Backbone:
């Protein structure tokens, strides 16, 4: 099978099969690099804001109580920030949804690579590794940049050494962080999807006005049907007009006097899907318009 | 011509209610945990999950509605994680961790622990001897902000003051909190860096050991060696043990990555990671305890005898907790079965 569409190939490279004990392949999609970075940046920003608020809160409470010594604030802030830094990810990933707020927003969750339970050890491990993956290179880079001489150079070299881990996810196909690798986890997409209305229902009513011949329905395959589905769900008027024109020309369809592009496409979609599904039940799945089946 | 109805459309209409119910229940579990469900709802989830899976199979074979297949894939994946990812209650897991899991994991890396302890001790001896030969080494080994007024040039009286002075406890407890956070970060590092084939972990352990040796020498040179040991011991035993364990956990991972044996490198790393991750969670707790001991005890307890008692006592308790064989419960920990 040759995949000619680069977008489709990229999509296929993110799919991983996970066969449930019932024998059905869930065809999971792993989170791509952009989503992972996005999720992390969201978490990171929330943490920074939380830390700032926490510091302000500590300060104002202690000031109100009357303890003027800065040390108390400092101690509480220090321990609090340590807790926040390390417990944020671990706490959220131990919850039933196994995702931090950033991951939730990006529709990601952590899962065990072998499809089993996500254990607490795994969550702890993958998050402790974050220290060297993110904190270390960044801190060392900053320290190195502000320290001159040989010491600064040493810091920079160590930063480069640990920087390998920062870009680790880009060098393997499962987008595993070093922490994922060690913990035996990976990050998959489980976005909450809404069940969209069935487009065939809309097309079926208009069907009486549109009678397509077999030949006209043979013009396209499954791939084109899915593209048409996309177009109909987006319902952008310009695109619909262009697509309708292309289809009419391809199948030699004479548009009636008051025939709208939307109606036509709805009807054609329903008819094409009916035919392709009918053929599929008999064992012929026509992949695309080049498929002779 | 009659209104044409697709088989796939019909199929969807018949099952849609079940899917929506499953989706609703999943949302409830994900938002508020399994406790928020009634018994009926809890029992319904596996049934609905299986019917959704079969719907997915049918939809893949008969329906060309892309959004429907996508929806069912997402729904089934979410349900799968709820049904098969279920874990025992958090309380039970924590109890199991402290009674069995933690010490079992620590025992399982005893070889690495020995190596890690040996490196620390050796480095301490080296640090001690180097500073003894040439006090200038002290400044290379101990960061200035950590040394404070302690150094080779400090007088015996001022050194004694750092051990027994209780004047400004406030400042010192701030210092203790800082040290805790510093040490915790170091031990997390020692663990995480093990992944880079053990070398950075060994270096971190060495620098920690050298620092210890240098400090001891400075005090020992002024005849305050025993007193310093007592002062350090209160929290130091727990803290050193934690750092050694963190190093050992790091070695475990590094060795698994470097020498995976018959397994794939990935599997070996994952297996080692699970064992050492459990050790590490405990290490952080040990460091917290050490921080507490440090903040509370170090400057308040000024009697050498009590200091030694706490130090040696904590060491004995930790070693006994980790290494003494203990009676197995009726059901051996699930951790060990895996």
Residues:
């Amino acid at each position: 099978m040759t995949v000619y569409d680069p977008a489709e190939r990229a999509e296929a490279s993110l799919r991983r099969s996970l066969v449930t004990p019932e024998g059905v392949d869930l065809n999971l999609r792993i989170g791509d690099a952009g989503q992972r970075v996005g999720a992390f940046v969201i978490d990171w920003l929330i943490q920074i804001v939380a830390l700032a608020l926490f510091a302000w809160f500590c300060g104002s409470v202690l000031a109100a109580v009357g303890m003027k010594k800065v040390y108390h604030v400092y101690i509480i802030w220090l321990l609090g920030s340590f807790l926040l830094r390390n417990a944020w990810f671990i706490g959220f990933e131990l919850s039933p949804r196994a995702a931090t707020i950033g991951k939730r927003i990006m529709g990601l969750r952590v899962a065990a690579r072998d499809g089993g339970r996500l254990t607490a050890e795994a969550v702890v491990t993958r998050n402790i590794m974050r220290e060297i993956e993110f904190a270390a290179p960044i801190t060392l880079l900053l320290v190195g940049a502000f320290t001159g001489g040989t010491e600064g150079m040493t810091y920079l070299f160590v930063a480069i050494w640990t920087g390998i881990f920062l870009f680790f996810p880009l060098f393997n196909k499962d987008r595993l962080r070093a922490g994922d690798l060690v913990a035996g986890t990976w990050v998959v997409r489980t976005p909450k999807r809404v069940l969209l209305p069935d487009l065939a229902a809309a097309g079926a009513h208009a069907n009486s006005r549109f009678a397509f011949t077999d030949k006209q329905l043979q013009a396209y395959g499954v791939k084109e049907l899915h593209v048409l589905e996309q177009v109909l769900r987006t319902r952008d008027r310009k695109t619909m007009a262009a697509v309708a024109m292309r289809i009419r020309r391809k199948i030699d369809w004479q548009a009636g006097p008051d025939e709208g592009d939307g109606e036509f496409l709805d009807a054609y979609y329903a008819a094409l899907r009916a035919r392709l599904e009918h053929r599929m039940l008999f064992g012929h799945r026509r992949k695309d318009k080049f498929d002779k089946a | 011509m009659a209104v044409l109805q697709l088989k796939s459309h019909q199929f969807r209409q018949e099952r849609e209610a079940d899917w929506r119910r499953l989706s609703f229940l999943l949302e409830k579990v994900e938002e508020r945990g399994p406790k928020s469900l009634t018994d009926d709802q809890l029992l319904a989830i596996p049934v609905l999950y299986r019917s959704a899976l079969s719907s997915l199979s049918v939809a893949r074979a008969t329906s060309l509605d892309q959004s429907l297949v996508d929806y069912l894939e997402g729904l089934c994946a979410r349900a799968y994680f709820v049904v098969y990812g279920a874990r025992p209650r958090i309380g039970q897991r924590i109890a199991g961790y402290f009674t069995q899991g933690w010490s079992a994991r620590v025992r399982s890396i005893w070889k690495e622990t020995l190596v890690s302890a040996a490196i620390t001790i050796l480095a301490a001896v080296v640090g001690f001897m180097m500073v003894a030969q040439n006090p200038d080494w002290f400044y290379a080994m101990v960061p200035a902000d950590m040394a404070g007024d302690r150094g080779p040039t400090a007088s015996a009286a001022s050194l004694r003051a750092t051990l027994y002075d209780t004047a400004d406890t406030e400042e010192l407890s701030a210092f203790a909190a800082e040290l805790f956070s510093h040490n915790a970060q170091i031990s997390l590092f020692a663990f995480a860096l093990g992944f880079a084939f053990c070398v950075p972990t060994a270096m971190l352990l060495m620098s920690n050991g050298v620092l210890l040796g240098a400090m001891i020498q400075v005090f020992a040179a002024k005849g305050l060696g025993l007193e310093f040991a007592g002062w350090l011991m209160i929290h130091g035993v727990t803290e050193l043990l934690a750092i050694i364990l963190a190093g050992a956990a790091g070695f475990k991972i590094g060795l698994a990555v470097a020498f995976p044996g018959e397994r794939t490198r990935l599997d070996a790393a994952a297996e080692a990671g699970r064992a050492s991750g459990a050790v590490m969670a405990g290490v952080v707790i040990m460091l917290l305890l050490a921080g507490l001991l440090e903040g509370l005890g170090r400057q308040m307890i000024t009697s050498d005898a009590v200091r030694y008692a706490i130090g040696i006592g904590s060491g004995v308790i930790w070693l006994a907790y980790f290494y003494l064989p203990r009676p197995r419960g009726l059901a051996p920990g699930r951790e060990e079965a895996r």
